[in-house]
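## Example pair
The file below holds two records. Each record gives the amino-acid sequence first, followed by its structure token line.
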Amino acid sequence: MKKYLIDFKIDDNIQLSSNYSLIKLSPCSGLLPEVEGGQFAQIEIPNSKETFLRRPISICFFDKKNNQLWLLVRKAGKGTESLINSISNTIVNMMLPLGNGFSYPTKPNAKVLLIGGGVGVAPLLYWGALLKAHGYDPLFLLAAKSENDLLLKDYFEEIGNVYVSTDDGSAGEKGLVIYNTILKDKTFDKYYCCGPMPMMKGIAKIAHTNSIDCEVSLENVMACGVGACLCCVEDTVDDGNVCVCKEGPVFNINRLKW
């Protein structure tokens, strides 16, 4: 898929909390390029001379009607802090779309569950919308430390039914997401998952045990986004060490040495 360097204008920066923002951007000229669910962009951080490298951010939503791209950004350092503090009309350069996204189920009536933890819910919003547009009925399982840390729940509820786990029990079921009641349902045909590595490995174990197909979106550290710097490698069963930014970020768990 062709990659583009595009200047975007921030239309809206919705501060979800002190650490998270939902940023809606539109290209300064022309229409958005087509994007697959699960792909990402490399973001040049505006107004931050200290930040040399671009930051990889999952594409949260592709709003074709309004010619907008959404990014869910977590403050993890000076670069992302500068980004979530950017005001409307700030110009942001992006390289996109990057990586390989999720794949559709092989069964036309497949029962699918999308599982996201923390900021890992980001790529699942657009993918859920695509699944629904293709005739599937996606269900969502969202996990967070507390109710205040749940991200984009209202947006997910516009697409399908949402189940919740929080560490402190302030919303949904109390405890780790791998113990949520919905995961006892062994009739799912496919899981899609993104979040902290321990969570994804836990979901992968459940998928293996119940013979459920499963794809995960890895969040390895990335610098270049095109497979040149070799800092995001992941060991696979079939091809050895591969660059997550180029071969992924989405992998079927059968390829991973988990």
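Second record, same layout:
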Amino acid sequence: MLSDQTFDPSKFKKIKKAEKEHFWFVARRKWIFDRIRQFCVPPADFLEVGCGTGNVSSFLAKVGYVVTGCELYEEAIKIAWQGFKIMKGDANSLPFENQSFDIVGLFDVIEHLDDPVIALKEALRVLKPGGIVSVTVPARKELWSYYDEISLHRRRYTKESLSCILQEAGFSVLKINYMFMALYLPMKYLRGNQKHGSADQFNINPLVNVLLKRLFEMERHISGFLPLPIGTSLIGVARKDIRD
């Protein structure tokens, strides 16, 4: 989403079509809200870096945050969801003043970048002292597949590797947790037994989609008090030192 050859902009229309009801997008945006409000409640100033069409930004604006989205690709900006401010910008050189935001989010962004620490240091720069950064990333190297390749991912993360890059960028890690535990074994089996697949990852039977939304709603609530032991994604929250 954020620099040349990190994302295929032709996919934005298909992604936006899926964002409204697909179980993965619905669960993820709620999971993000659950985590960030533990540390910073509305109406805090929120910046989403690499916001795409603004699925998460629009949702967070509806629950009370003052949201700005930053996206490199015009294709996404032109069709973005409503309810928040969006502007063009690169994660590696954000068009904002120092200490402008209470929260910065990078949701499924840094796995596309050659050097994610550069973007995280930019997030640190634009955060107010004591502010937080929240990131989501694909998890577990053993789940690497054709889908990662067509999505132009550079890597999948472990808890340890995500913690390391957050600390390298200058943050103090608060929480790193798994999401989508129920997808782990099916994904491990399916992705380990195929070299290629359909490029449309979001084409799903409506009944299956409803059942999975309910499953991950339950899983999300459980994860609020009992961290999941495994999953296909990670969500992390880290803080900028109040003295910075």
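Notes on the second record: The two ends are 29 Å apart (CA to CA). The domain at 9-239 is CATH 3.40.50.150 (Rossmann fold).
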